[in-house]
Structures are given as C-alpha cells and as structure tokens.
Write a structure and sequence with these properties.
The complex is a heterodimer of chains A (about 200) and B (about 120). Chain A has about 200 residues and is mostly helical. Chain A is built from 8 helices and no strands. In chain A, α2 crosses α3 and α4 crosses α7. Classes of the chains: A mainly alpha (about 200), B mainly alpha (about 120). At the A-B interface, α2, α3, α5 and α8 of A face α1 and α2 of B.
C-alpha cells in the first residue's frame, strides 16, 4: 500500500518515528522528505557552504535518528530539537578538525557580481551571506542560522543549544551586528546602495 | 565615495530571505542513501524482535502440532488415543521426544502416550 505523502502531513514527527521503529517503510520516507532538507540546509550554512561535507553530516544525523527511534520516549523532546542538536554537534566536530588542519579554512567568496537577473542576484546575496556567516564565531553563527534562516523560536533554539533564552537573544543580536559590519564592504555589489 | 555603511535590519532580512529561497535540497542520491540506512536499521529491529519472540517459546513443538490438527477445540473433540496417534504421526521422532521430555519432563514409551495425554487434558 502506498500512501500519498500528503496523507501523512498531519502526522507528527514523533508518531512517524514510532511507526518507523515498528517497521513502517512509509514513515521512513515521510521523515526523510520532511527532515533531511532542514538538516542539509542547517549543516551547509554551519560548514560555510561545503555541500559535500554537509551531505555527509546529513546522512550521519539521519542514521542516528533511525537508531534512536526504538528507544524514543514520547513527550520528552521534540524530534527536531533532538535532530538539530545532533547536527550542531556533528558540525562542531568537523569545524574543530578543520581548525586543527588549516586556520584559513573559510571558503573564498565566489565572483558573485550582481546582474539584472533576479535569480542570479538572489543567489549572489545568499552566497555573500553564507560567506559572512562563516566569519562569525560558531555560537553566534548557529543562533543566527537557527533563528533567521531555519525560522525556529527562541525557546526551541534555547533547547537545542542548551542555553537560556536571553543568551539566545544576545547571540543573535551580536551575530546580526557582526554580519551587518562584515557585509558593509559589499553593500554596493549586493545592490543595497542609494546610488 | 563608495557606500560602506553596515547593513540595516531590513537589508539583512532580505539576505535571510534569499538564503531561505535558495536553500540546498537533498539530491536524489542522498535521499537514496538515507533510506537505505533506514531500511538497514528497520531490518535489524525486525531480526531482534523475531529472536526475542523465539526465545519465549519453550513448547513451540507442541504448539505447532496442535496447530496442525486445528487447535484445542479440535483436539478436545477427538478420543485421546486418536489425538496421541495424530501427534505421534505428525511429529518427527526428535520433536516428540523433545515435547515429552520438555513438557512432561520424563522419558515416555510410545505406547504410554495416550493415558499421559489425557492427564494433560485434565490439567488443561
């Protein structure tokens, strides 16, 4: 029996995970389609745009989710909170290894001269943001990504990062100020000048 | 003079939106790998469950013989000797022996099976 994926759209992550642990193949598909894009997007930004590494982290994080499914205790934590935390730790490990190997490991910005084409400009802006994020301290980067790109609430970020809500707000505020300053150099090429 | 003022909140929001709009999507290859991992874990869970279930079946042979003749209702309707005969006929020599030694906990000659079986029924 094959269900349309939207037939499962009202089922919670947790219910899908329990079904998964009981052998439900469709639950595996639904969870993969629902969660892997978020994991990939978060990991890609944390790792400064390294897509290949982000894919490895995504696969690794999902395996850990599959393995915890049979022991998942209902009502204790949100699946996404748990998953984001796992992804954060995996990214931190990789970033730590990079620092041990090469201090100048931040990817060089691509040539993203804006053009009249909207899509190109949007891609250029996204890339510029990604490069700027890579220059922030890790905890500020994480808080800004989770809040302003992944769209999570401060309480949820607080649970993922294991810090208080005020600390989350402080990190995002400092992160945004840092980004604003880093990107100031590129204001004109990003198309934000008054001229 | 080039404009190098720090970006405003509105401009940053614009960049965040651009990031969301251009979010990388998992490739088909990545999804395939994730689902293959999922299947592997599910297969392991199934194998573990089957093993645990098998470990809790000490009189498995008896049950399979009973199932072969249609369960207790069918067995109750038969004369004891007939049931014993069916059981001996259906079961392999080793399984009858393991049933008798396992359930009745002493060795039994084939001819003595009928009266012993009726004892088992009475205990029922």
């Amino acid at each position: 029996m094959t269900l349309a994926f939207d037939a499962l759209s009202h089922v919670s992550d947790e219910a899908l995970l329990i079904a998964f642990a009981n052998g439900d193949r469709e639950a595996a598909q639904a969870l993969t389609l629902r969660l892997s894009p978020r994991v990939l997007s978060f990991a890609t930004r944390m790792l400064g745009g390294d897509r290949a590494e982000a894919e490895d982290v995504t696969q690794d994080a999902m395996v850990r989710l599959w393995k915890i499914a049979a022991e998942w205790r209902q009502g204790e934590a949100k699946v996404t909170t748990w998953l984001y935390r796992v992804v954060s730790n995996l990214c931190t490990d990789r970033l730590r290894k990079r620092r041990g190997v090469d201090i100048d490991s931040i990817p060089e910005p691509i040539d993203d001269t804006p053009s009249a084409d909207d899509t190109l400009q949007e891609n250029a802006r996204a890339k510029a943001l990604e490069n700027a994020l890579a220059e922030l301290p890790e905890r500020q980067r994480q808080a800004v990504i989770l809040r302003h790109i992944e769209g999570l609430s401060n309480p949820e970020i607080s649970a993922i990062m294991d810090i208080g809500v005020e600390a989350v707000e402080s990190l995002t505020a400092r992160g945004k100020r840092g980004l604003a300053a880093i990107l100031a150099e590129r204001r004109e090429e990003l198309g934000y000048s008054d001229g | 003079m080039v404009d190098k003022r720090p970006l405003s909140d509105t401009e940053l929001d614009d960049l965040f939106q651009a990031a969301r709009d251009t979010a990388p999507l998992p490739s088909g290859d990545l999804v395939t790998r994730i689902l293959a991992d999922a299947k592997g874990v599910q297969d392991d869970l199934e194998a573990d469950a089957a093993q645990a279930l098998a470990a809790r079946e000490p009189v498995g042979v008896f049950r399979s013989i009973l199932a072969a003749i249609g369960g207790w209702p069918a067995a109750a309707g038969l004369a004891t000797a007939t049931v014993a005969g069916v059981m001996i006929g259906v079961a392999t020599p080793e399984s009858v022996e393991s049933w008798t030694t396992g359930v009745l906990s002493f060795d039994v000659e084939a001819g003595e099976l009928a009266p012993l079986f009726s004892d088992l029924l009475e205990e029922g």
